[in-house]
Amino acid sequence: MRTRPAGIGNVNADWMGSLPSKLSAMPLKYLAVPGSHDSFTFWVDVHAPVGPDQKAYVKYLATMFSVLAKKVMVKWSMTQNLTFKEQLDAGIRYFDLRVSSKPSEPGSEIYFIHGLFGHKVRDGLLEINSFLGRHKKEVVFLDFNHYYAMDAEHHVYLIHMLQQVFGSKLCSDCAVENITLNFLWEKKYQVIVFYHHPSAQGIPVMWPGNKIPAPWANTTEPNKLIQFLETTLKERNKQGSFHVTQAILTPTVNTVAKGLVWGLRDYLVERNLPVIMSWVQTQRPGKDGVNIITSDFVELTDFANIVIKLNNMLLSESECKPR
Predict the structure, then answer these.
(1) Which residue among the candidates 114, 154, 155, 243 is catalytic per the annotation?
(2) From the CB of residue 278, how many other CB atoms can be counted at a distance below 10 Å?
(3) CA-to-CA distance for 199 and 155, rounded, in angstroms?
(4) What is the DSSP letter of 96?
(5) Which residues share a beta bridge with 193?
(6) CA 42, CA 79: separation in Å to the nearest integer?
(7) Is 17 helix (H, G, I), strand (E, B) or coil?
(8) How many CA atoms lie within 13 A of 41 on its CB side?
(9) How many Å apart are CA 112 and CA 148, to the nearest integer?
(10) What pTM was computed for the model?
(11) Residue 120 three-state SS
(12) What is the pLDDT of residue 111?
């Protein structure tokens, strides 16, 4: 039986609903919101084929050395240990989602994917919706940003699924500056879906991907990551979008080769987290500051709490009111 990592509880299950009125009246683009990178990778299926998001040589190795190769892939594909419910209880409100059909499977079923296939998307959405039903003032960002082996039929199926599961909780696309917690509570909206594909054009409850840019540093070095994050924050759009700060390191083929038996968490993430989190703690939300911040293995530090507490800086400021 899977056990909950030590120190994880539901202490932040209602953090949005507990914010002071001054903060709930501010545009969400000015608040600090904790998110997870590759949010669904707490479970991947080692018995399924390698996903279509992988390069040809990875698929070849997985075919030749099936069990061994997939065990290595699990170690480097998993970026989270917590389920959706556990992440939500911990305070995570932004989810980075990558999805795919199974090319060998009939029908239109969609799965989460990161190297290997994960759970059915529908199961994950139902888990999120169940949480929202119990926590009426909490709001989530669902960012569907990568699609694999999906044709028009698959997109229609997924968009219909999102509408079916969340129904009236879905917030329609509008000016980002109008999105405050007070506005969302009044309308009983709890879900903002970003759909980075032309299939969603013209569907009011599917927000375009350009309203949530997430610059990617693509580096294994924490100092280069921090330099990149600071540069992209300075270049953040003043109007019309949220902003994702991806506080993550990305392994190269060489990194994987050197740390083959250790995996992403042990070889790359844990040793560099203190430097990254020290930078996060010095950030401030607001007009020219951080908004959504994502991390791998959100349970390894007090990540969500650290990000949520950044909002306290706004209580003594008035600069964050919309113009």
Answers:
(1) 114
(2) 11
(3) 6
(4) E
(5) 142, 206
(6) 7
(7) coil
(8) 25
(9) 10
(10) 0.90
(11) strand
(12) 96
The 10s digit of each residue's pLDDT in 270-301 is 888 889 999 999 999 999 899 999 998 888 88
* 3 state DSSP class of 73: helix
Q: Are 258 and 315 in contact (CB under 8 A)?
A: no
Q: What is the pLDDT of residue 76?
A: 67
Verify whether residue 135 is a known catalytic residue.
no
186/73 Cα distance (integer angstroms): 45
Taking the C-alpha atoms of residue 171 and residue 95, their distance in angstroms, rounded to an integer, is 16
Beta bridge partners of 81: none
R_g over Cα of the chain: 19
**Helix residue spans in the chain (DSSP H):** 21-24, 56-64, 66-77, 84-90, 121-134, 152-166, 181-187, 222-234, 253-258, 264, 270-281, 303-309
For the ranges 38-52, 162-176, 268-282, 297-311, the lowest mean pLDDT is seen at 38-52
Q: Is 196 one of the annotated active-site residues of the chain?
A: no
- pLDDT, tens digit (0-9, with 9 covering 90-100), for 95-123: 999 999 998 888 899 999 987 889 999 99
Query: Rounded to whole angstroms, how far apart are CA atoms 103 and 245?
Result: 33
Beta-strand pair 206-208/244-246 = unpaired
CA atoms within 13 A on the CB side of 254: 2
* More confident of the two residues 123 and 74: 123
Q: Which pLDDT value is given to residue 44?
A: 76
Q: Between residues 60 and 146, which one has the greater pLDDT?
A: 146
Q: 121-134 and 152-166 are packed helices; what angle lies between their axes, rounded to 10 degrees?
A: 20
